[in-house]
Amino acid sequence: MKKWQKKFKLKEIFKMSKDDKIQNDETLLTDENQVGETEEQQVALEENPTEQNLDSEIESLKEQVAELNDKMLRKAAEFDNFRRRKDKEFAELILVASERTITSILPVLDDFERTLKASEENENDTKALKEGILLVKEKLQKTLEEQGLKTIESLGKSFDHEKHDAMLQIEKEGVESGIVVEEYEKGYLLNDKVIRHSKVIVSK
Whole-angstrom Cα distance, residue 170 to residue 181? Predict the structure, then answer.
């Protein structure tokens, strides 16, 4: 074989080897790309739940909503029962308090009737009538005090707008301004709460 023929054949062999390497590299790249695409598809499937999984989650959420709604309805019913029970207890408490107050005043009413009867039998005995009325008044006052009623002390006291209503202001010699000098109508406290202001006359 001639020298130039050997040289040509070596070139052909080298070219074929180079082409095979390029083809092998391309095949390797193709395989790697396919593997990469497969992995990406797998990740996408894992990240995006299937329609079946979505349906399952929706059903689970529906069950949770139904459970919460049931709890809310039960709590509302319990609160309504609690409110009705408290309203009933409050009404009964008022009834009992009213009953006790009226029951405690009944003896005073009896005394009034006895006093009136005695005054009819002794029309000219005004002193006995006065004493009878005074006794009834004292008994009534004591009964009301037992229920928590107190008289507001006003005469000689400084005017207090929380306890007194000023009917009039007058000049009073020797008395400084703002002092209660006369009481037109008594005021009362019930368990230390003002239930009626004293109507008073105050010095200028």
Answer: 9
**Positions in the chain whose pLDDT score sits under 50:** 2-4, 6-10, 13-14, 16-18, 21, 28-29, 35, 45
Name the nearest CA neighbour of 151 among 98, 198, 93, 88.
198
Residue 154's domain is classified under what CATH number? 2.30.22.10
| Overall pTM surpassing 0.70 (yes/no) | no
Pairing of strands 180-185, 198-203: antiparallel
Residue ending a domain, choose from 114, 129, 147: 147
Q: Return d(Cα 17, Cα 92) in angstroms, integer.
A: 109
Same domain, yes or no, for 137 and 106?
yes
DSSP 47-112: HS--HHHHHHHHHHHHHHHHHHHHHHHHHHHHHHHHHHHHHHHHHHHHHHHHHHHHHHHHHHHHHH
Would 10 be classed as within a structural domain? no
